[in-house]
Amino acid sequence: MSADVTQIPGLLAGLAAKDIKIWVDGDRLRCNAPAGALTAEFRDQLRDRKDELIAFLNMATAAARQQPAIIPLQSSGTRTPIYAVPGHIGAPFSFSDLSKHLGDDQPFYALQPSGFDGQSEPMDRVEDIAEYFARQIIQYQPTGPYIIAGYCSGASTSFELAKILGQRGAEVPCIALFGPLHPSTYKELPRLLYFFARRSAYPHLRQMAKLPTFGARLRYFGSRLRILGERSRALVTRIRQSKEPVTTDPVLASRARLKSAAITALRRYIPTPYSGRVCIFLPNKAWLRSGAAPHRWLRVVPHAEFYFGSDDCHDVLMLEDPDAPAIAELYRQATQKLNGT
After folding, report:
1. Which region holds residue 293: left if phi is over 0, alpha if psi is between -120 and 50, else beta?
2. Which CATH architecture has domain 1-65?
């Protein structure tokens, strides 16, 4: 794989973060994006790197026919391989920056849930999702050890996955939970709405903090309100002017079904005690008492180890640059204690 192609996972992660969907249709690259998400920079990259993107996506599709859950972000290296569960939207490339900063000697595999490809049906029980991943991992790598990781709401599935692998005799030296969202929060609607509203607003608050003056911050805030208003008016206009029934894009529809099924699964899930090693990586110390309620994991893993990022790191961006190098260093510090890593 060329040096340029190795950067494709990072580009895909950036697109996924903006909810921009791309797929291959014959010799063409198709795209679906929310209003305003497809910036000029993204358009240029899609145009200039079309052939590389098509080759990478075709390669990933071919590999998925054998193990559809296994997405190799870094397949070489001598350290204990990491198998990582993404958040509830199931985007495997959300781990791209973290994998890159863990280095060439760290094998790293993202786990893609059933339903993410739009061809299979999503599952609505954490235990079933974990069982699906366990079968895929064992097919791909019949013997351990495995380090199981999870991000945000993916923490529940990774927790259950590690237990299944351990029950089948596999060595799981560590579960690594990055910014874990405790499943009990999905049963507390006001808490959950506040948490996700705060997550959505944080990137803009962070951008405002970089501006030098109060006036500049106020202008930025006003521009975001104007953009939001323009998008809302444009959507209303399109609906009013449309003479055809509104149709749902199949890619967006499949992702919506996956998200709904994942939330249903988390609402049903109740974690049980686990005796193995669990490392919890939080963006910062204040986040310990955030709406994500990560401290509740201590109810089933009282011996869990906590590692904290800097005060200006936040969960939405903790696995992305520029925060990813610091989180990767925290992971290295934690796993230095493990034999063979």
Report:
1. left
2. Orthogonal Bundle (1.10)
Interval 211-260: pLDDT, tens: 677 666 667 656 665 655 565 555 445 445 544 444 456 666 777 788 88
Residues 321, 7: Cα–Cα separation, whole Å: 14
Short-list 99, 275, 106, CA closest to 178: 99
* CATH architecture of the domain formed by 67-201+257-341: 3-Layer(aba) Sandwich (3.40)
Domain residue spans in the chain?
A: 1-65, 67-201+257-341, 202-256
Do the Cβ atoms of 31 and 22 come closer than 8 Å? yes
* Residues 179/287, Cβ–Cβ less than 8 Å: yes
pTM, rounded to two decimals: 0.68
The C-alpha atoms of residue 16 and residue 25 are separated, in whole angstroms, by 19
Could you identify the residue written with the tokens 């495995």? 146
Q: What is the pLDDT of residues 278-300, one digit of tens each?
A: 999 999 998 888 878 899 999 99
CA dihedral 6, 99, 140, 55 (to 10 degrees): -20
